[in-house]
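Entry 14. Structure prediction run on the chain below.
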Amino acid sequence: MRKDEDTGRSGGRAEKSAGMMTAAVIVAAMSVFLTGCGAGGNSFPDDRSAIYIARDGGLYTVLCGAYDAAKDYYSEEELTARVEEEVAAYNAERSACEGQEDEPVTVEEVRLGDGAASIVLRYSDAENLMRFTEASQDAENHTEKLSVTMVGEGLPDVPGEDEAWTDAKRSDPVTPEQIRRRTDLHLIAVTGPVTVQAEKRILYYSGAVSLLDKYTAQVADGDAYIVFK
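Output returned:
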């Protein structure tokens, strides 16, 4: 991940400040998180934090869980305003540093009510996803490595061609050569521990991957490669 010479690991004082406030917002509003089974496919997970990857290459993070509805936390409107404030601060910092005209991070959705809470953010690219999750202290979705390419473009760069690959449907071994023929498929390279949900079905994977359902993979420590339709 590229780092500016004058920003340090978290991308500068503005990002550090934004990170502390975002973490405080999330802890205050959703501090009683419970884990559960996630949704799959075309919809964002509604009770599991995950990096969501759309078929068109769109990158999202979903931070979600359950909270004690009997306690007086933020309203949905207040939480939305606070999240938007932090995203705006991050975008301003990136624009000042790199002159980006597009918004590196956008707020896709914020929901808070009836004991369920979720924040969905969209990113212009993988670098901003990695930067923002670090700055905002989103440990659930932070990764030091993330890329999404087509198989024909990315698979030749996967280290160790003899690495074990698994057919997700049959749980049988498959060779890289068999996968390479499928140039219409998407390849995710990611370093865990994170949860990754693809818009379409996961077909093959390599590395420390446990499938939670046909769209969702739990990645343990280390590099993992996921191929989806």
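Residues 147-228 form one domain.
Filed with the rest of this week's runs.
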